Amino acid sequence: MLFLDKYRPKKLEELDIHKKLTPHLKELAETEDLPHLLFYGPSGAGKKTRILSLLREMYGPQVENLSMTQREFSFKSGGKTELTVLSSPFHIELNPSDAGVNDRKVIQEIIKEIASSAPIIVESKSTLESQFKKTNQKEKPKTNTLENTQKKRDFKVVILSEVDQLTKEAQQALRRTMEKYTRTCRIFMDCINISGIIDPLKSRCLGIRIPSPSSQEIKTVLYKTCKKEGIKLPNYFADTIIEKSEFNLRKALLILESAKMDQYPFSQNQTIQPPDWEKLIIKMAHLMIEEQSPARLLILRNSIFELLTHCIPPDLIFKKLTLELIQKVGGEMQKQVIIWAAFFEHRSKLGTKPIIHIEAFMAKFMSLYKQFLSVNFN
Amino acid sequence: MNLKKSIISIPWTEKYRPKTIDEVAHQSEVVDALKNSLKTENIPHILFYGPPGTGKTSTILAIATQLFGPKLFRSRVLELNASDERGIQVIRDKVKKFAQLSAIQKDDRYPSPAFKIIILDECDSMTQDAQNALRRIMEQYSKETRFCIICNYISKIIDPLASRCAKFRFKPIPEKIMQERLNFIAKTEGIEIEEKALEALMESSQGDLRKAITILQSTSKMISKKTTQSKPEEKKMAIEEEDTNIETEPNVKITEELIFDVSCSVPLSVVKEFIESCKASSINELVTTCQKLINSAFSIPQILLLSLKMIIEDNFLNNLQKAEICEKISEIESRLIDGADELLQLMELGVCILENYR
Ligand SMILES: Nc1ncnc2c1ncn2[C@@H]1O[C@H](COP(=O)(O)OP(=O)(O)OP(=O)(O)O)[C@@H](O)[C@H]1O
Ligand SMILES: [Mg+2]
User: Which intervals hold domain AAA+ ATPase (chain B) (predicted)?
Assistant: First the structure.
C-alpha cells in the first residue's frame, strides 16, 4: 500500500494540515441542521480526506464500512451508464462526471432518487435493490442495529467529487434537489476551480476553503510518515521534496516514496526526477525554442498525442508548457506566452478536440518567437 | 431549548423560507401584484427572473399554497425544475396529462380558483426547442392553466415566451432589508450579531439572502459551543453586564472576525499584494504571486471583483488605462465561467495590469 493510503488520516483530530479548520468542522459535525458543504481548493490539499474525516466525526467509525460496487444505471429517458459507487450505511459517494455527457441524467435520476429516499440506514434494502440493477459484487446484508451506531441522524450524506467537472446542465439539475430533500440528505461536494461552479449552487452551500498546505505543514507530515516507516529523512532532503511538491501533499508523499525506492539512505546529491509527462513537456518547450518550423510542429504533434493518450489533462499541458516557456524567454515574449496560453486554453474548453488548440498555441508561439528573433538579432 | 430540539433538523434556509407572500422580503412589486390576484382569484402567466437566493421559488410556492391550500396543492400545482427531465416530449406529455385533470374541486378555506398552476423553475438550462414547444403548449392550455417561468437570466428565455408573461424582476436584497431579516432570524434563534458582523455578512453575500442565512447559521454554531462551555453562572453574569460593557463579552456575539472566517471572504490585503506584484513589472514575480494565489484557494471571481474596485479607485491610472483593465477583467470573468484555467487567466490579467502601470 502506498504511504498515501496507509497513513491517510481518518479522524478530524488526526489532520495535520489546516488545523485551524478542525474546530469549525467539529462544530458543524455536531449540529443536526448543518447545510450542504462545498470544499474547494487545489489538488493535494486534502479535501477528500477532510470530507471523510468529517463524516466519521458525524456518524462514527461505521462510515468506514465501505462497500464498492460497479452499478449499471438505466435511465428512464433511455440509455444507461455504469458507475462506481462507494457506500456505507450512512453515505454514498459517486462521481457523476464519470458518466460524461450523461452527467445531467445521473443527477436528475440517480442523485434525486437517492436524495429523496429516506436515510440509508432506515431504508429497507429492497427499495434500493429494485431501483438499481447491480452488475457486480453482492453487498453484505445490512444489520439493523441502530443502537450500536453511536450517532443517529435523520439524513444521509451524498458525496459528489469534482463538481467543477460537471456540465452546467448537470449543475443546474442539482439545484432544487438540494432544497427539496434537505430533510433526508446533505450533499458534500469538492472542486478545484470554484469559478467553474454556477452561482445558484454556490448560493446553496457553505463554502469551505482548503488552501494548499504550507511548507511547514508538509514537513510535519513527511516526518510523521518517515517516523512510522522508520525512514531517516535528512532536513536538506525534506526541503528538496517540498520544493518539488508544488505544495501538493499527495505529490510530496509520492516523491518521498519513490525516492526511497530509488536510493536509500538519502544522500546530499540525490536528485528527484520529474514524472515522465513533465519531462516530455520540458523537452517540447526546448524543441520550440530551438527551431520554429512546420517540421518541428509535426514532431511536437506526436508528443501532444502521447500526453493526451496518457490522460494528462489539456489544461495541465497548457500550464506546464507555459511555465516552461516563460523560463526560457525574455520579458516581452513572456507576456505573449501568457496571453496566448490563456486565449487558447480557454478555447480548448469550449471545443472538443484539445489537440487542435494546443497545437495552435504552439504554432502561435513559434511564429511570434521567429518574428521576435528576426527583429532583434537580424 | 427543548422545543428547538424537537423541530426536525433542516438548515435555516429552509426553516425560514417564507410561507406566505407577506413574509417575502423586499420584492414589493411582485408581492403587491400577487396580493391583488388573491382578491381577484386570477393570475396571468408570470415570469420571475433574478439572481440566486432572492425569493423566486419561495414566492411562487407561497402564492400557490395561499391560493389552493395544502390539500389541493398536489392536484393543482405542477412543479418542474432543472432536476426533472424537460425535453420537448416530456413537457408535452406531463403538461397535457396535468392539464386534463379537473380543476373544479374547492377547499373552502382557500380561494381555490378553477385553474391549475404549472411552475417551470430554473429554466436557464432549458433548450430553445423546448421553449418553443412550451410556447405552443401554453397557448393550447391557456384556459385551464397558468404558467410560471422562473430563471436567473432573462436572456436565456426566448422572446415569444417572455412576451406572453407578466415579468417580475427579483432584485438583490438591499442591505437594510437583509439586515432586518437576519436580525429576525437571529432573534428567533436566540443569537446576537455585532453591527460590524452584519456588515461583513452583507459584504460576503452580495444581496443573496440564502447565502447570508447559511453563513449566519454556520457561524452561530461556532459561538453556541463556546457559550455552553462557559459555566452557566458566568453566562448569566455576562448577560447582565452586557449593556455596560459589550467589548469584554465577545463569545456570545457573532463577531466580524467569525463571519470572515466562516464565509471565506477574500481579504483586501491579498488583492493588494497581487496588484503590487503587477506594478513591480517582473513577469517572474507575477507568476509566483499568481501561483501563490491559486494555492491559497481564494475565489478568483471574488478577486476579480475586488481588483476591479481597487483599479477604479487608483488615481495613478488614467481613464483609458482603467477602461482597458476593466475590459480585460470582464473578458476573464466570462472565460472563467466557460471553465478556463484559473492560473492562466489570472496571469493574463496580471500582464494587462502590469502593462498599464508602466
Ligand atoms: N425575499 C426573500 N424573503 C425572505 N426570505 C428569502 C427571500 N429570498 C430568499 N430568501 C431565503 O433564501 C432561501 C432561498 O430562496 P428561494 O429558493 O426563493 O431563492 P430563488 O430566488 O429561487 O433562488 P435560485 O435562483 O437560486 O433558485 C429561502 O428559503 C429563504 O430562506
Ligand atoms: Mg429557486
Answer: 42-174
